[in-house]
DNA sequence: CCATTATCTTTACATCGTAAAGATCAAATA
DNA sequence: TATTTGATCTTTACGATGTAAAGATAATGG
């Protein structure tokens, strides 16, 4: 913070004339009370506007640039406006993470639907998982590496839960057994934990640049996706697995 | 930040008489220049003292409590003293992460040495990995989930590199082939990435509490370590692996 | 013995999260 | 329809943080 960033309060007035386009475009059925109609006091759909602004700030300035005040600036409102809608920085981050989980789930679902062969269907989900994280690293960071999330918020809880359920079902389908809701065998649990850990760990290491070493030692141009595929399909040798 | 924390500047003078024990004990060959000898201007070994203070703060107040000023308070020096030794918050975090990696490597090495059977030796490293993270979650967080690390610092780079090398060698030994320094086959890379991703991902999910669901559906009292073991040893069924 | 340098403190400033009070508007109510 | 009420947004304020800059102090080397 405070990294000699000279785009403080002056930025808003210099860059944008304080929310005029969004006002004219996005607010529905607003009668012209005052003839001037500039910078109306009430936004109309500030909550969604703030979430979209947060996503923009996240993609532009990264996780460390995602502050309440920056989001308010991006949306063209006062720095205390987000508090009313999200209560807290944790609140904003949690709602943003919920948005991310919904995007994430949708991406995986559509990717699975598009697959035709069984092998493709089995690989579609992990590939889409990693692809989403690569396309939206900031969002993935919010969802999976932020301590400041409040999972008691229903929206976040539901979206994250759906993500887990989708994974567990996929594993169950792959093992050709249905997984009952309340109990698991150790082998079932191990299969789920293995799949999730593998994909999640791979993604984290990839985003942190910790796989560059490995990728650099592979034939020229080997992509992370190719390595993931090999990871998931290559025969497991060595003393650890299988007799 | 600013979470109604009423232990501000008053804490230091109230809690500790401003570094008297450390002064008398740790500073070597200090002539009694001024007869009083209270709160000497120069600490003598502040760098190490700050790192130890940082570790204490981290374990006590968590990652969000680990600030430059809090570390300075804990060490009983002015809030700007750390800057001179670490330059930056990134600098302090990076050096602390290096300390963590060294502890981490030592823990895994000693655990491997203690193992007797081949199976135990193969499981020793991942178990020690997870055990370290469980015992020092803050430290593990600094090492693996902080964006603010400067890997151009030699100490951090070396310690982290040693961690990776140890893992790669272990995989190589398990596959009964030696891994040459500069090139890898796709299967070798896949084996390394799989092992690292699995253990790292498992640890992250475990620390984030995302495995509680799974653990809760297993027989009463099944530990994370047991699940890890099953993950690493249970036969892999389903369409994905094997012919 | 003195000058230089390293170490630590003081002071200052921009930014951040958040609380509290004031302003403005939409909608319910009388 | 006029008025009140509640939701929404702004202003103001405060403590905390990272960091820069200048001053104070002690160790070191000439």
Describe the structure.
Two copies of one chain form a homodimer. The first copy, chain A, is an all-alpha fold and 243 residues long. The first copy, chain A, has two domains: 43-87, Arc Repressor Mutant, subunit A (Orthogonal Bundle); 90-221, Orthogonal Bundle (Tetracycline Repressor, domain 2), CATH 1.10.357. Chain A is built from twelve helices and no strands. The first copy, chain A, has helices at residues 10-15, 21-26, 46-61, 68-75, 81-86, 89-114, 118-135, 137-145, 154-174, 186-207, 212-216, 224-233. Mean pLDDT of chain A is 83; it is low at 1-37. Chain A binds a DNA duplex (30 and 30 nucleotides) through helix 4 and helix 5.
CATH class of the largest domain in chain A: Mainly Alpha
Strand content of chain A: under 5%
The shape of chain A is globular
Q: How far apart are the first and last residues' alpha carbons of chain A, in Å?
A: 54 Å
Describe this structure in a few short sentences.
The structure is a homodimer of 243-residue chains. The first copy, chain A, is built from twelve helices and no strands. Chain A has helices spanning 10-15, 21-26, 46-61, 68-75, 81-86, 89-114, 118-135, 137-145, 154-174, 186-207, 212-216, 224-233.
Supply database-style keywords:
homodimer; 243 residues; mainly alpha; Arc Repressor Mutant, subunit A; Tetracycline Repressor, domain 2; 2 domains; 12 helices; globular; disordered N terminus; DNA-binding
């Amino acid at each position: 913070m405070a990294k000699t960033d000279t785009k403080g309060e002056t930025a808003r007035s210099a860059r944008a004339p304080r929310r005029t386009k969004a006002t004219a475009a996005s607010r529905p059925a607003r009668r012209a009370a005052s003839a001037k109609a500039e910078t109306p006091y009430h936004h109309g759909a500030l909550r969604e506007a703030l979430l979209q602004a947060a996503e923009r700030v996240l993609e532009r300035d990264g996780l460390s640039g995602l502050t309440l005040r920056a989001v308010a600036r991006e949306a063209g409102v006062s720095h205390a406006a987000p508090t009313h809608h999200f209560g807290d920085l944790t609140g904003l981050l949690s709602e943003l993470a919920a948005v991310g989980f919904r995007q994430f789930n949708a991406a995986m679902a559509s990717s699975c639907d598009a697959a035709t062969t069984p092998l493709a269907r089995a690989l579609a989900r992990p590939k889409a998982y990693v692809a989403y994280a690569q396309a939206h690293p900031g969002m993935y960071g919010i969802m999976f590496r932020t301590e400041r999330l409040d999972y008691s918020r229903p929206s976040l809880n539901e979206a994250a839960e759906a993500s887990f359920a989708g994974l567990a079902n996929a594993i169950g389908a792959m093992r050709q057994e249905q997984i009952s809701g309340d109990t698991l065998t150790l082998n079932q649990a191990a299969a789920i934990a293995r799949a999730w850990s593998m994909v999640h760990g791979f993604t984290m290491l990839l985003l942190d640049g910790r796989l560059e070493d490995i990728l650099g030692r592979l034939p020229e141009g080997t992509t992370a996706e190719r390595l993931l595929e090999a990871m998931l399909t290559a025969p497991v040798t060595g003393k650890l697995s299988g007799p």
